[in-house]
Amino acid sequence: MDAVKAFQYYINRILSDTTGMKVLLLDKETTPMISLVSTQSYLLSKETFLVDKVENVHRDTLRHLKCICFVRPTEASVRALVDELRSPKYGDYYVYVSNILKKSMIEVLAENDESEVVREVQEFYADFYAATPCLFHVGLTPAAHPLFAEGYSWNPGALSRTVQGLSSVLLSMKKRPNIRYERNSAMAQKLGQELQYLMDHESSLFGSFARDNQTQLFIIDRKNDPVTPLLTQWTYHAMLHDLIGVTNGRIDLSYVPDIRPEVKEVMLSQDQDTFFKQSQYLNFGDLGVSVREYVDTYQSKTESHHQIQSISDMKRFVEAYPEFRKLSGNVTKHVTLIGELSRIVANRQLLAVSELEQSLACNEQHNNDLRALRAMIAEPKIAPENKLRCVILYALRYERTQSSAIAELKQLLITNGVDADQVSAIDVVLRYGGASERQTDIFQNENLFSRGKNIFKGLQGIENVYTQHTPALAEMLEQMIRGKQGLHWQERLPNLDPKARPPLIGNENGLFNQDIIVFVVGGAMLEEEMAVAKLNAKFSNQNVRILLGGTSVHSSTSFLSELSTTFFP
Fold this sequence. Notes:
The protein has 23 helices and 13 strands. It is α/β, with parallel strands linked by helices.
């Protein structure tokens, strides 16, 4: 199960089925989807002369070219297509929609195709954002698609978009899974019910995929692990996403003083960038060594190219020049990115912040944590948002501790210049994912057995003090695959259909020959994506394949921003 390859398959079909010079028209949502998995050079190799947006009414008329339209089946995109067909700018039109197209929309297109330029209309199920091979999301943002209506309920638009995105993933991979959901999440259950309804009623699409016992969909809720989104990240891809910002594979560096023009905006692509593919999961310390070796490789190749003494040397240089130029640009890009990360880490004192975060997330030591928090809040060089995240972590861990000092810490934050509206996020997160709302003991401190495990965990040799934390999702999946705590997982993740007889999760023999899709209502994290990638490699001998999805891919900032716009009673 590879989200990127599934999407690329459809793009290749779209561009290859129509031969000759052509124009590719996209809408505002399919544009970033395609930019994640394709490049300009690939489009050119498929004779795509021009890429434009269907909403752009100021395009030139080029009747000698064919036009491929790839849009989402939304009312806005259909209206734009109708306007296009009433006054066609190209010779022939091949319309591809990214999901199930309503009969009424087909009729509207047919009625307005008075010039009879539409040659075909097809559904190609690529209605999701393929962030990495093992991570997809449906692009919900607070501005475009707020996740929550009020409290723990779906915004209707967000629910509809999520069902569409998740169903397209299943159709693209030809899966009809058994659905399980977290018992304490009404939102997870509602999503499962809507998805099951769609699969049952679109029998012409899903009917050809027999429900087998080898594919399972686990719908889980972010509120059961609010800790992972609050931690500073230390691996390359996650740091870029959290500290600088990665939007659909693009990074904007235009804010950096004296930035070189060619790196004001850069792209991240595993397909096109070997260094990024090899380094995305490296921690920050190892990353410095890796980029040093990368620069040394570039320098050695530069020196060899300087030694042009004959016609044959010149020929070799000219043949290698495109690759050499690409290497030069890539070296510049990664040196610039890592330099900016280093500046941010130093300026924000993230090493000190992260050490306290990890202590709060992984170890039970109230007096030490409280003392360290008081000192951090009083430190003017620590950014307000980092102080706030640490206090939220403290509140999540110690809210039921008798000597908890949450009220005192809130007042300390305000006294030290943190805005009162920001401080209110502490209560919002507690109402969203506090102890009374969570289904699991993520801190392993709610009973004597768990406390023993937690202490033992703290005594083990830690390779890196800044990366002690393991996401709850990763621990859940590994226990299931290994066959541990079977009854616990069956109770926590009941079948949506109580009559279904799928394989028992967590049976003592472990899981074999299973495809598992884990979808996180409330957004997935890149720390979780890395854990899934490692589990796929670790259990490949059991033929277990895991795909992670989410309503979005969060950073700590976007996570708190999404919650701050919602009232939780």
